[in-house]
Amino acid sequence: MNEPIRTRTGGQILVDALRVNGADTAFCVPGESFLAAIDAFHDAAADIRLVVCRQEGGAAHMAEAHGKLTGRPGICFVTRGPGATNASIGVHTARQDSTPLILFVGQVAREAMGREAWQEIDYRHMFGHIAKWVDQIDDPARIPEYVNRAFHIATAGRPGPVVLALPEDMLAQEAAVADCPPYRRAQACPDPAAMAELAERLQAAERPLVMLGGGGWTRQASEDIAAFAQAHDLPVACAFRRQDLLDNRHDHYCGEAGLGMDPRLAARIREADFILAVGPRLGETTTNGYTLLDVPRPRQVLAHVHADPQELGRVYHADVAINAAMPAAARALRALPAPQAARWRAWTRQARADYLAHLEPPAMPGEVDFGRIMVQLRERLPPQAILTNGAGNYTLWVQRFYPYRGLRTQLAPTSGTMGYGLPAAIAAKLAHPERPVVCFAGDGCFLMNGQELATAMQYGLNILVIVVNNGMYGSIRMHQERHYPGRVCATGLANPDFAGLARAYGAHGEVVARTEEFLPAYERAMAAGRPALIELRVSQEALSPRLTISGLRGQGA
To answer: Do both 351 and 396 map to the same domain?
Structure first.
Protein backbone atom coordinates (compact mmCIF):
# COMPACT_ATOMS: atom_id res chain seq x y z
CA MET A 1 0.00 0.00 0.00
CA ASN A 2 1.12 3.54 -0.70
CA GLU A 3 2.03 5.56 2.35
CA PRO A 4 -0.24 8.56 2.98
CA ILE A 5 1.10 11.90 1.79
CA ARG A 6 2.09 13.89 4.84
CA THR A 7 1.38 17.57 5.34
CA ARG A 8 4.47 19.80 5.38
CA THR A 9 5.29 23.50 5.32
CA GLY A 10 6.50 25.00 2.08
CA GLY A 11 9.95 25.28 3.62
CA GLN A 12 10.01 21.57 4.40
CA ILE A 13 8.71 20.63 0.94
CA LEU A 14 11.42 22.80 -0.60
CA VAL A 15 14.32 21.32 1.38
CA ASP A 16 12.98 17.79 0.78
CA ALA A 17 12.88 18.56 -2.97
CA LEU A 18 16.53 19.64 -2.86
CA ARG A 19 17.45 16.43 -1.08
CA VAL A 20 15.54 14.29 -3.60
CA ASN A 21 17.41 16.01 -6.45
CA GLY A 22 20.79 15.25 -4.94
CA ALA A 23 21.78 18.58 -3.39
CA ASP A 24 24.29 18.05 -0.57
CA THR A 25 25.44 21.65 0.00
CA ALA A 26 23.69 25.02 0.02
CA PHE A 27 25.13 28.49 0.59
CA CYS A 28 23.25 31.34 2.19
CA VAL A 29 23.12 34.62 4.02
CA PRO A 30 20.09 34.20 6.27
CA GLY A 31 17.07 36.45 5.97
CA GLU A 32 13.66 36.65 7.61
CA SER A 33 12.00 36.21 4.22
CA PHE A 34 12.92 32.50 4.11
CA LEU A 35 12.98 31.57 7.80
CA ALA A 36 10.67 28.60 7.19
CA ALA A 37 13.23 27.13 4.79
CA ILE A 38 16.07 27.75 7.27
CA ASP A 39 14.05 25.88 9.88
CA ALA A 40 13.64 22.96 7.48
CA PHE A 41 17.41 22.86 6.93
CA HIS A 42 17.74 22.25 10.69
CA ASP A 43 16.12 18.84 10.29
CA ALA A 44 18.01 18.05 7.06
CA ALA A 45 21.50 18.76 8.46
CA ALA A 46 22.59 15.13 8.04
CA ASP A 47 21.96 15.31 4.28
CA ILE A 48 22.48 18.93 3.25
CA ARG A 49 25.25 21.13 4.59
CA LEU A 50 24.07 24.75 4.92
CA VAL A 51 27.06 27.09 4.66
CA VAL A 52 26.50 30.53 6.16
CA CYS A 53 28.40 33.29 4.35
CA ARG A 54 29.07 36.95 5.10
CA GLN A 55 27.75 38.63 1.95
CA GLU A 56 25.35 37.44 -0.72
CA GLY A 57 27.82 38.05 -3.55
CA GLY A 58 30.26 35.70 -1.85
CA ALA A 59 27.51 33.14 -1.23
CA ALA A 60 26.42 33.20 -4.89
CA HIS A 61 30.00 32.80 -6.10
CA MET A 62 30.51 29.86 -3.74
CA ALA A 63 27.41 28.21 -5.17
CA GLU A 64 28.59 28.93 -8.73
CA ALA A 65 32.02 27.43 -8.00
CA HIS A 66 30.34 24.38 -6.45
CA GLY A 67 28.35 23.98 -9.67
CA LYS A 68 31.54 24.21 -11.74
CA LEU A 69 33.29 21.59 -9.63
CA THR A 70 30.49 19.06 -9.41
CA GLY A 71 28.51 19.58 -12.63
CA ARG A 72 25.37 19.70 -10.46
CA PRO A 73 23.49 22.93 -9.77
CA GLY A 74 25.04 25.02 -7.02
CA ILE A 75 22.37 26.04 -4.49
CA CYS A 76 22.15 29.52 -2.96
CA PHE A 77 19.57 31.17 -0.68
CA VAL A 78 19.37 34.93 -0.19
CA THR A 79 16.80 37.36 1.12
CA ARG A 80 14.78 39.82 -0.91
CA GLY A 81 15.88 43.23 -2.18
CA PRO A 82 19.48 43.93 -1.13
CA GLY A 83 20.22 40.21 -0.76
CA ALA A 84 19.07 39.50 -4.31
CA THR A 85 20.89 42.47 -5.82
CA ASN A 86 24.11 41.42 -4.08
CA ALA A 87 23.68 37.86 -5.35
CA SER A 88 23.07 38.96 -8.93
CA ILE A 89 26.82 39.00 -9.58
CA GLY A 90 26.90 35.23 -9.10
CA VAL A 91 23.97 34.79 -11.48
CA HIS A 92 25.81 36.81 -14.12
CA THR A 93 28.96 34.73 -13.61
CA ALA A 94 26.98 31.50 -13.92
CA ARG A 95 25.39 32.74 -17.14
CA GLN A 96 28.64 33.74 -18.84
CA ASP A 97 30.52 30.71 -17.49
CA SER A 98 27.76 28.21 -18.41
CA THR A 99 27.51 26.95 -14.83
CA PRO A 100 24.41 25.25 -13.36
CA LEU A 101 23.12 27.35 -10.44
CA ILE A 102 19.80 27.74 -8.65
CA LEU A 103 19.28 30.92 -6.66
CA PHE A 104 16.35 30.96 -4.23
CA VAL A 105 15.26 34.46 -3.21
CA GLY A 106 12.99 35.20 -0.28
CA GLN A 107 10.10 37.41 -1.35
CA VAL A 108 7.51 39.60 0.34
CA ALA A 109 4.23 37.97 1.35
CA ARG A 110 1.77 37.38 -1.45
CA GLU A 111 -0.83 39.77 -0.06
CA ALA A 112 1.67 42.67 -0.13
CA MET A 113 2.90 42.22 -3.70
CA GLY A 114 2.58 45.07 -6.15
CA ARG A 115 2.58 47.74 -3.42
CA GLU A 116 6.36 48.28 -3.34
CA ALA A 117 6.40 46.55 0.00
CA TRP A 118 9.58 46.56 2.07
CA GLN A 119 12.46 45.38 -0.16
CA GLU A 120 10.06 44.23 -2.88
CA ILE A 121 11.45 43.57 -6.38
CA ASP A 122 9.89 41.87 -9.38
CA TYR A 123 12.54 39.19 -9.95
CA ARG A 124 11.19 38.16 -13.33
CA HIS A 125 12.18 41.59 -14.61
CA MET A 126 15.36 41.86 -12.57
CA PHE A 127 16.88 38.53 -13.61
CA GLY A 128 15.03 37.96 -16.88
CA HIS A 129 17.99 38.78 -19.12
CA ILE A 130 20.76 36.96 -17.25
CA ALA A 131 19.08 33.79 -15.98
CA LYS A 132 17.88 30.84 -18.07
CA TRP A 133 14.58 30.86 -16.22
CA VAL A 134 13.05 33.09 -13.53
CA ASP A 135 9.79 32.41 -11.74
CA GLN A 136 7.97 32.65 -8.44
CA ILE A 137 6.38 29.81 -6.49
CA ASP A 138 3.01 30.97 -5.16
CA ASP A 139 1.58 27.59 -4.15
CA PRO A 140 3.51 25.28 -1.79
CA ALA A 141 1.88 22.25 -3.45
CA ARG A 142 3.79 23.12 -6.66
CA ILE A 143 7.24 23.33 -5.05
CA PRO A 144 8.35 19.81 -6.12
CA GLU A 145 7.35 20.60 -9.71
CA TYR A 146 9.19 23.94 -9.77
CA VAL A 147 12.35 22.63 -8.13
CA ASN A 148 12.51 19.62 -10.42
CA ARG A 149 12.11 21.89 -13.44
CA ALA A 150 14.82 24.21 -12.08
CA PHE A 151 17.31 21.34 -11.93
CA HIS A 152 16.39 20.31 -15.48
CA ILE A 153 16.77 23.81 -16.93
CA ALA A 154 19.99 24.59 -15.06
CA THR A 155 21.69 21.48 -16.47
CA ALA A 156 20.10 21.09 -19.93
CA GLY A 157 21.84 22.26 -23.11
CA ARG A 158 24.19 25.09 -22.21
CA PRO A 159 24.14 24.97 -18.37
CA GLY A 160 23.25 28.15 -16.55
CA PRO A 161 21.44 29.88 -13.68
CA VAL A 162 17.82 29.64 -12.58
CA VAL A 163 16.17 32.03 -10.09
CA LEU A 164 13.09 31.15 -8.04
CA ALA A 165 11.36 33.67 -5.78
CA LEU A 166 9.78 32.36 -2.56
CA PRO A 167 7.06 34.47 -0.90
CA GLU A 168 7.63 34.19 2.84
CA ASP A 169 4.02 33.33 3.66
CA MET A 170 4.05 30.57 1.00
CA LEU A 171 7.03 28.94 2.74
CA ALA A 172 5.14 28.90 6.04
CA GLN A 173 1.91 27.56 4.51
CA GLU A 174 1.24 23.82 4.77
CA ALA A 175 0.36 21.49 1.90
CA ALA A 176 0.04 17.77 1.28
CA VAL A 177 2.02 16.89 -1.83
CA ALA A 178 4.26 14.06 -2.95
CA ASP A 179 7.89 14.61 -3.91
CA CYS A 180 8.88 14.45 -7.57
CA PRO A 181 11.40 11.82 -8.67
CA PRO A 182 14.94 13.18 -9.04
CA TYR A 183 15.75 15.05 -12.24
CA ARG A 184 17.58 13.27 -15.03
CA ARG A 185 19.83 15.29 -17.28
CA ALA A 186 18.88 15.28 -20.96
CA GLN A 187 21.75 15.67 -23.42
CA ALA A 188 21.91 16.24 -27.16
CA CYS A 189 23.98 13.76 -29.17
CA PRO A 190 25.88 14.46 -32.41
CA ASP A 191 24.24 13.62 -35.72
CA PRO A 192 26.15 10.79 -37.46
CA ALA A 193 25.99 12.56 -40.83
CA ALA A 194 27.49 15.71 -39.33
CA MET A 195 30.25 13.67 -37.69
CA ALA A 196 31.03 12.03 -41.03
CA GLU A 197 31.29 15.46 -42.68
CA LEU A 198 33.52 16.69 -39.84
CA ALA A 199 35.84 13.72 -40.40
CA GLU A 200 36.03 14.48 -44.15
CA ARG A 201 36.80 18.15 -43.50
CA LEU A 202 39.50 17.20 -41.00
CA GLN A 203 41.17 14.78 -43.39
CA ALA A 204 41.31 17.49 -46.07
CA ALA A 205 43.07 19.95 -43.71
CA GLU A 206 46.74 20.92 -43.68
CA ARG A 207 46.81 23.08 -40.54
CA PRO A 208 44.02 21.92 -38.17
CA LEU A 209 43.48 23.22 -34.63
CA VAL A 210 41.12 22.13 -31.83
CA MET A 211 39.67 24.73 -29.45
CA LEU A 212 38.01 23.59 -26.21
CA GLY A 213 35.76 25.60 -23.93
CA GLY A 214 32.32 26.09 -22.46
CA GLY A 215 30.54 24.19 -19.72
CA GLY A 216 29.11 20.72 -19.23
CA TRP A 217 32.42 18.87 -19.31
CA THR A 218 33.00 15.66 -17.36
CA ARG A 219 36.21 13.86 -16.51
CA GLN A 220 35.39 11.18 -19.07
CA ALA A 221 34.76 13.80 -21.74
CA SER A 222 38.12 15.39 -20.96
CA GLU A 223 39.82 11.99 -21.26
CA ASP A 224 38.00 11.26 -24.53
CA ILE A 225 39.04 14.55 -26.12
CA ALA A 226 42.64 13.95 -25.03
CA ALA A 227 42.58 10.53 -26.67
CA PHE A 228 41.08 12.03 -29.84
CA ALA A 229 43.82 14.68 -30.01
CA GLN A 230 46.49 12.03 -29.45
CA ALA A 231 45.14 9.66 -32.10
CA HIS A 232 44.78 12.41 -34.71
CA ASP A 233 47.96 14.28 -33.68
CA LEU A 234 46.06 17.56 -33.27
CA PRO A 235 47.16 20.72 -31.43
CA VAL A 236 44.64 21.76 -28.77
CA ALA A 237 44.08 25.26 -27.37
CA CYS A 238 41.71 25.96 -24.50
CA ALA A 239 39.43 28.99 -24.25
CA PHE A 240 39.83 31.75 -21.68
CA ARG A 241 39.96 30.28 -18.17
CA ARG A 242 39.18 26.81 -19.43
CA GLN A 243 42.81 25.67 -19.40
CA ASP A 244 42.04 22.62 -17.27
CA LEU A 245 39.87 20.95 -19.94
CA LEU A 246 43.04 19.25 -21.17
CA ASP A 247 45.97 18.39 -18.89
CA ASN A 248 48.55 21.00 -19.83
CA ARG A 249 51.28 18.34 -19.63
CA HIS A 250 49.66 16.57 -22.61
CA ASP A 251 52.03 16.86 -25.56
CA HIS A 252 49.24 18.20 -27.79
CA TYR A 253 48.23 21.09 -25.52
CA CYS A 254 49.34 24.39 -27.08
CA GLY A 255 48.01 27.14 -24.81
CA GLU A 256 45.13 29.36 -23.81
CA ALA A 257 43.12 31.46 -26.23
CA GLY A 258 42.24 34.33 -23.93
CA LEU A 259 43.44 37.60 -22.43
CA GLY A 260 47.22 37.92 -22.68
CA MET A 261 47.26 35.28 -25.42
CA ASP A 262 50.67 34.24 -26.76
CA PRO A 263 50.98 36.13 -30.08
CA ARG A 264 52.24 32.90 -31.66
CA LEU A 265 49.04 31.10 -30.69
CA ALA A 266 46.95 33.98 -32.04
CA ALA A 267 48.85 33.74 -35.32
CA ARG A 268 48.33 29.98 -35.38
CA ILE A 269 44.56 30.39 -35.01
CA ARG A 270 44.56 32.87 -37.92
CA GLU A 271 46.73 30.60 -40.06
CA ALA A 272 44.75 27.40 -39.38
CA ASP A 273 42.75 26.07 -42.31
CA PHE A 274 40.43 23.97 -40.12
CA ILE A 275 39.20 24.80 -36.60
CA LEU A 276 37.26 22.31 -34.53
CA ALA A 277 35.63 24.28 -31.69
CA VAL A 278 34.27 21.88 -29.07
CA GLY A 279 32.23 23.72 -26.45
CA PRO A 280 33.29 27.38 -26.64
CA ARG A 281 30.89 30.09 -27.75
CA LEU A 282 33.85 31.68 -29.58
CA GLY A 283 33.29 34.88 -27.66
CA GLU A 284 35.25 38.11 -27.45
CA THR A 285 38.18 36.95 -25.31
CA THR A 286 38.70 33.64 -27.12
CA THR A 287 38.76 35.32 -30.54
CA ASN A 288 40.82 38.37 -29.54
CA GLY A 289 37.94 40.77 -29.96
CA TYR A 290 36.39 38.79 -32.86
CA THR A 291 39.54 39.34 -34.96
CA LEU A 292 40.99 35.82 -35.17
CA LEU A 293 37.95 34.54 -37.07
CA ASP A 294 36.13 36.75 -39.55
CA VAL A 295 32.47 37.53 -38.77
CA PRO A 296 30.19 35.99 -39.90
CA ARG A 297 32.12 33.66 -42.22
CA PRO A 298 35.59 32.68 -40.97
CA ARG A 299 38.42 32.20 -43.46
CA GLN A 300 39.12 28.89 -41.74
CA VAL A 301 36.86 25.90 -42.23
CA LEU A 302 34.90 25.88 -38.96
CA ALA A 303 33.31 22.87 -37.26
CA HIS A 304 31.45 24.14 -34.20
CA VAL A 305 30.16 21.77 -31.52
CA HIS A 306 27.94 23.26 -28.84
CA ALA A 307 25.30 22.02 -26.41
CA ASP A 308 22.93 24.91 -27.13
CA PRO A 309 21.54 25.09 -30.68
CA GLN A 310 21.01 28.84 -30.26
CA GLU A 311 24.77 29.35 -29.97
CA LEU A 312 25.39 27.69 -33.33
CA GLY A 313 25.37 30.41 -35.98
CA ARG A 314 24.92 33.16 -33.40
CA VAL A 315 28.14 34.96 -34.39
CA TYR A 316 29.94 32.64 -36.80
CA HIS A 317 28.61 30.64 -39.70
CA ALA A 318 30.03 27.13 -39.24
CA ASP A 319 30.72 24.81 -42.14
CA VAL A 320 29.74 21.95 -39.84
CA ALA A 321 27.41 22.77 -36.92
CA ILE A 322 26.85 20.02 -34.35
CA ASN A 323 24.41 20.35 -31.47
CA ALA A 324 25.73 18.00 -28.80
CA ALA A 325 26.61 17.89 -25.12
CA MET A 326 30.30 17.63 -24.33
CA PRO A 327 30.30 14.00 -23.09
CA ALA A 328 28.50 12.76 -26.20
CA ALA A 329 30.58 14.94 -28.54
CA ALA A 330 33.90 13.88 -27.03
CA ARG A 331 32.87 10.23 -27.13
CA ALA A 332 31.94 10.50 -30.83
CA LEU A 333 35.18 12.30 -31.69
CA ARG A 334 37.22 9.61 -29.95
CA ALA A 335 35.48 6.99 -32.10
CA LEU A 336 36.50 8.63 -35.38
CA PRO A 337 39.02 6.54 -37.36
CA ALA A 338 42.53 7.94 -36.95
CA PRO A 339 44.83 8.55 -39.92
CA GLN A 340 47.89 6.37 -40.47
CA ALA A 341 50.12 9.44 -40.38
CA ALA A 342 48.88 13.00 -40.03
CA ARG A 343 50.18 15.54 -42.55
CA TRP A 344 50.23 18.20 -39.85
CA ARG A 345 52.73 16.54 -37.51
CA ALA A 346 55.28 19.39 -37.77
CA TRP A 347 52.50 21.96 -37.27
CA THR A 348 51.44 20.25 -34.03
CA ARG A 349 55.01 19.87 -32.72
CA GLN A 350 55.72 23.56 -33.30
CA ALA A 351 52.51 24.56 -31.51
CA ARG A 352 53.59 22.57 -28.48
CA ALA A 353 57.13 24.00 -28.61
CA ASP A 354 55.71 27.53 -28.70
CA TYR A 355 53.62 26.80 -25.58
CA LEU A 356 56.60 25.40 -23.67
CA ALA A 357 58.70 28.43 -24.57
CA HIS A 358 55.87 30.70 -23.35
CA LEU A 359 56.03 29.04 -19.91
CA GLU A 360 59.34 30.71 -19.08
CA PRO A 361 58.68 33.98 -17.22
CA PRO A 362 60.56 37.14 -18.15
CA ALA A 363 62.22 39.06 -15.32
CA MET A 364 59.80 41.28 -13.42
CA PRO A 365 60.69 44.75 -12.10
CA GLY A 366 60.90 45.12 -8.33
CA GLU A 367 61.96 43.02 -5.36
CA VAL A 368 59.19 40.41 -5.78
CA ASP A 369 59.20 38.49 -9.06
CA PHE A 370 55.73 36.98 -9.37
CA GLY A 371 56.76 34.94 -12.41
CA ARG A 372 59.50 33.16 -10.46
CA ILE A 373 57.04 32.51 -7.64
CA MET A 374 54.61 30.87 -10.08
CA VAL A 375 57.45 28.60 -11.26
CA GLN A 376 58.16 27.66 -7.64
CA LEU A 377 54.49 26.85 -7.08
CA ARG A 378 54.17 24.68 -10.17
CA GLU A 379 57.17 22.69 -8.94
CA ARG A 380 55.65 22.16 -5.49
CA LEU A 381 51.88 21.95 -5.79
CA PRO A 382 50.61 18.42 -6.48
CA PRO A 383 48.65 17.70 -9.68
CA GLN A 384 45.33 17.59 -7.82
CA ALA A 385 45.72 21.13 -6.41
CA ILE A 386 42.90 23.55 -7.23
CA LEU A 387 43.82 27.14 -8.13
CA THR A 388 41.25 29.93 -8.01
CA ASN A 389 41.34 33.57 -8.98
CA GLY A 390 39.14 36.55 -9.72
CA ALA A 391 39.94 39.26 -12.26
CA GLY A 392 42.77 41.69 -12.82
CA ASN A 393 46.16 41.80 -14.49
CA TYR A 394 47.72 39.66 -11.74
CA THR A 395 45.84 36.72 -13.24
CA LEU A 396 48.01 36.87 -16.36
CA TRP A 397 50.94 35.45 -14.37
CA VAL A 398 48.73 32.67 -12.94
CA GLN A 399 47.23 31.71 -16.30
CA ARG A 400 50.50 31.88 -18.22
CA PHE A 401 53.04 30.27 -15.91
CA TYR A 402 51.07 27.54 -14.13
CA PRO A 403 50.22 24.36 -16.09
CA TYR A 404 46.86 22.97 -14.97
CA ARG A 405 46.99 19.22 -14.51
CA GLY A 406 43.47 18.06 -15.32
CA LEU A 407 39.78 18.87 -15.18
CA ARG A 408 38.61 21.09 -12.32
CA THR A 409 42.02 22.22 -11.16
CA GLN A 410 41.16 25.77 -12.29
CA LEU A 411 38.29 27.87 -10.94
CA ALA A 412 38.21 31.28 -12.58
CA PRO A 413 35.40 33.42 -14.03
CA THR A 414 35.21 33.90 -17.79
CA SER A 415 32.89 36.79 -16.92
CA GLY A 416 35.91 38.70 -15.57
CA THR A 417 34.33 39.39 -12.20
CA MET A 418 36.50 40.59 -9.34
CA GLY A 419 36.16 39.07 -5.88
CA TYR A 420 35.57 35.53 -7.19
CA GLY A 421 38.76 33.77 -6.05
CA LEU A 422 38.21 33.59 -2.29
CA PRO A 423 34.57 32.35 -2.40
CA ALA A 424 35.57 29.83 -5.08
CA ALA A 425 38.44 28.58 -2.92
CA ILE A 426 36.05 28.08 0.00
CA ALA A 427 33.63 26.12 -2.19
CA ALA A 428 36.51 24.03 -3.54
CA LYS A 429 37.80 23.14 -0.09
CA LEU A 430 34.30 22.22 1.06
CA ALA A 431 33.88 19.91 -1.93
CA HIS A 432 37.42 18.51 -1.81
CA PRO A 433 38.88 18.86 1.71
CA GLU A 434 41.68 16.43 0.78
CA ARG A 435 43.06 18.65 -2.01
CA PRO A 436 45.28 21.73 -1.67
CA VAL A 437 43.40 24.89 -2.65
CA VAL A 438 45.24 28.11 -3.49
CA CYS A 439 43.43 31.39 -4.15
CA PHE A 440 45.10 34.26 -6.02
CA ALA A 441 43.70 37.75 -5.61
CA GLY A 442 44.86 41.24 -6.43
CA ASP A 443 44.64 43.86 -3.71
CA GLY A 444 41.52 45.34 -5.26
CA CYS A 445 40.08 41.92 -6.05
CA PHE A 446 40.60 40.56 -2.53
CA LEU A 447 38.77 43.36 -0.75
CA MET A 448 35.63 42.77 -2.80
CA ASN A 449 35.00 39.55 -0.86
CA GLY A 450 37.77 39.46 1.76
CA GLN A 451 35.15 39.16 4.51
CA GLU A 452 34.67 35.53 3.49
CA LEU A 453 37.91 34.73 5.32
CA ALA A 454 35.56 34.60 8.29
CA THR A 455 33.64 31.82 6.53
CA ALA A 456 36.86 29.87 5.91
CA MET A 457 37.70 30.20 9.61
CA GLN A 458 34.21 29.22 10.76
CA TYR A 459 34.26 25.98 8.77
CA GLY A 460 37.94 25.13 9.30
CA LEU A 461 38.82 25.36 5.58
CA ASN A 462 42.60 25.49 5.32
CA ILE A 463 42.99 27.35 2.05
CA LEU A 464 45.97 29.46 1.06
CA VAL A 465 45.28 32.97 -0.22
CA ILE A 466 48.02 34.82 -2.11
CA VAL A 467 47.28 38.54 -2.34
CA VAL A 468 49.23 40.31 -5.09
CA ASN A 469 49.46 43.87 -3.77
CA ASN A 470 50.59 46.61 -6.14
CA GLY A 471 48.52 49.40 -4.62
CA MET A 472 46.31 49.96 -7.66
CA TYR A 473 43.63 48.58 -9.94
CA GLY A 474 46.28 47.17 -12.27
CA SER A 475 44.28 46.26 -15.35
CA ILE A 476 42.51 49.63 -15.42
CA ARG A 477 45.84 51.40 -14.88
CA MET A 478 47.23 49.51 -17.88
CA HIS A 479 44.42 50.75 -20.11
CA GLN A 480 44.75 54.22 -18.60
CA GLU A 481 48.47 54.36 -19.38
CA ARG A 482 47.83 53.10 -22.89
CA HIS A 483 45.17 55.68 -23.72
CA TYR A 484 45.98 58.53 -21.30
CA PRO A 485 49.68 58.10 -20.43
CA GLY A 486 50.81 59.80 -17.23
CA ARG A 487 47.30 61.03 -16.33
CA VAL A 488 46.77 58.77 -13.32
CA CYS A 489 43.29 59.12 -11.82
CA ALA A 490 40.94 56.80 -9.89
CA THR A 491 43.23 53.74 -10.05
CA GLY A 492 45.39 54.15 -6.92
CA LEU A 493 44.56 52.19 -3.75
CA ALA A 494 45.44 52.76 -0.08
CA ASN A 495 45.48 49.25 1.36
CA PRO A 496 45.44 47.67 4.80
CA ASP A 497 48.13 45.33 6.07
CA PHE A 498 46.64 42.23 4.44
CA ALA A 499 48.67 39.82 6.59
CA GLY A 500 47.56 41.67 9.72
CA LEU A 501 43.97 41.57 8.50
CA ALA A 502 44.22 37.81 8.04
CA ARG A 503 45.58 37.42 11.57
CA ALA A 504 42.66 39.49 12.87
CA TYR A 505 40.34 36.84 11.42
CA GLY A 506 42.42 34.15 13.15
CA ALA A 507 44.20 33.02 9.98
CA HIS A 508 47.94 32.72 9.44
CA GLY A 509 49.29 35.85 7.76
CA GLU A 510 52.69 36.82 6.32
CA VAL A 511 54.16 39.51 4.07
CA VAL A 512 56.68 38.73 1.31
CA ALA A 513 58.75 41.73 0.24
CA ARG A 514 61.48 39.83 -1.70
CA THR A 515 61.26 36.80 -3.97
CA GLU A 516 63.56 34.69 -1.80
CA GLU A 517 61.18 35.10 1.15
CA PHE A 518 58.34 33.32 -0.60
CA LEU A 519 59.24 29.65 -0.27
CA PRO A 520 59.83 29.75 3.53
CA ALA A 521 56.58 31.71 3.92
CA TYR A 522 54.76 29.19 1.70
CA GLU A 523 56.02 26.24 3.77
CA ARG A 524 54.93 27.91 7.01
CA ALA A 525 51.52 28.74 5.55
CA MET A 526 50.92 25.18 4.35
CA ALA A 527 51.93 23.81 7.76
CA ALA A 528 49.88 26.32 9.76
CA GLY A 529 46.87 24.04 10.19
CA ARG A 530 44.44 26.90 9.50
CA PRO A 531 43.55 29.25 6.65
CA ALA A 532 46.58 31.26 5.58
CA LEU A 533 47.30 34.42 3.61
CA ILE A 534 50.56 35.55 2.01
CA GLU A 535 50.76 39.13 0.82
CA LEU A 536 53.16 39.72 -2.09
CA ARG A 537 54.25 43.34 -2.30
CA VAL A 538 54.97 43.77 -6.00
CA SER A 539 56.06 46.77 -8.05
CA GLN A 540 53.50 48.95 -9.79
CA GLU A 541 55.88 49.11 -12.74
CA ALA A 542 54.95 45.59 -13.89
CA LEU A 543 51.53 45.82 -15.53
CA SER A 544 51.70 42.38 -17.15
CA PRO A 545 54.38 39.79 -17.98
CA ARG A 546 55.09 41.79 -21.15
CA LEU A 547 54.21 45.39 -20.25
CA THR A 548 55.58 48.02 -17.88
CA ILE A 549 54.35 51.52 -17.13
CA SER A 550 57.62 52.99 -18.45
CA GLY A 551 57.34 50.94 -21.61
CA LEU A 552 53.77 52.06 -22.31
CA ARG A 553 54.62 55.70 -21.72
CA GLY A 554 57.63 55.28 -24.01
CA GLN A 555 55.38 53.99 -26.77
CA GLY A 556 53.30 57.12 -26.53
CA ALA A 557 56.30 59.44 -26.60
So the answer is: no
